[in-house]
Amino acid sequence: MSESISKNKALMRRIYEEMWNAGNPSLAVEIFDRPEGVARFVSQFLISFPDLQHSIEGMIEEGNQVAVQFSARGTHQGRWLEFPPTGRSIQYTGVTVASIEANKIIKHYTWWDKNSLVEQISNE
Question: In whole angstroms, how large is the CA radius of gyration of the chain?
């Protein structure tokens, strides 16, 4: 069981280290059972925040589920939603919970502090 536990955690680590930090959204095909929306979101987000770096703050595994607490830092260098580039440094935190089967994420939920990010880049 410890081997599958470490495989699941290693798969989750790839999201943050290889897909986000190394700027490789196409890796979603290897990681997710349904990668299309994930790859598109990561690609678009990295256009707005090209130097974005995630840090894993903690990881817990229970059965086939892994929860990851993360933080992210970067610079707002491209349009995001209705916000033109500001050049401002940003940071936010979040949590992802994923269900894994046969070395693929079959279901995942991510909660992150989008409101804080909006506050950091809005001109108000």
Answer: 15
